[in-house]
């Protein structure tokens, strides 16, 4: 009941206007002026009744709901960030695996000069030595002397692409090349200022 009594308190302000300061549970209410600029716009009785304690309960419920929505919104945003972090971790793991595989393939024995854009076939001798050849298993036919391990294309960045991924990788490279050759197709970037 004390809160209800506080709600109706008014104080004198300059200009002969009466401003009521209203406080309640969950925060302060907006100050009200019965005659802003000396003109009564609406009946203050109908717009600012403070005697009903249920109004304070409704206001407290609204504040609580707002807190719940803010918490749920923050939780959703943090969930998206956590998923992005997991995706980036997976990408980093794949980059490291590919780099390790590429380094291993560059150490494989080869009696020819490797040229980017060419496909090389990986074989394994009985002794365990691996080597690259430009002769495919089909070209060997039934007389293939060693175990075939796989085929790889040497890319221009000196990375290796497994044979089964060559078409997909070439398609991505073609898309990027088209974008780079048509700079007018890209919208102009607005100048961004990151300074406060």
Automatic annotation (TrEMBL):
One Gene Ontology MF term: identical protein binding
Keywords (A to Z) from UniProt: Coiled coil
Coiled-coil intervals, chain numbering: 71-98
InterPro entries found in the cross-reference section: DUF2452 (IPR019534)
Region (Disordered): 1-23
Protein name, entry field: Chromosome 1 open reading frame 50
One Pfam family it belongs to: DUF2452
């Amino acid at each position: 009941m004390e809160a209800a009594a506080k709600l109706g308190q008014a104080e004198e302000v300059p200009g002969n206007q009466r401003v009521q300061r209203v406080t309640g549970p969950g925060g302060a209410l907006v100050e009200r002026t019965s005659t802003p600029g000396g003109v009564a716009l609406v009946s203050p009785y109908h717009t600012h009744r403070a005697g009903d304690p249920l109004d304070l309960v409704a206001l407290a419920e609204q504040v609580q709901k707002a807190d719940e929505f803010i918490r749920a919104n923050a939780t959703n945003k943090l969930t998206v960030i956590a998923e992005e972090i997991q995706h980036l971790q997976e990408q980093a793991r794949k980059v490291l695996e590919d780099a390790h595989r590429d380094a291993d393939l560059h150490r494989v024995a080869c009696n020819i000069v490797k040229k980017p854009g060419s496909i090389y076939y990986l074989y394994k001798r009985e002794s365990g030595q691996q080597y690259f050849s430009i002769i495919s298993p089909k070209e060997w036919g039934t007389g293939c002397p060693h175990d075939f391990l796989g085929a790889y294309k040497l890319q221009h960045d000196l990375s290796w692409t497994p044979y089964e991924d060559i078409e997909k990788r070439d398609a991505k490279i073609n898309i990027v090349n088209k974008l780079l050759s048509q700079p007018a197709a890209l919208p102009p970037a607005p100048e961004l200022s990151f300074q406060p």
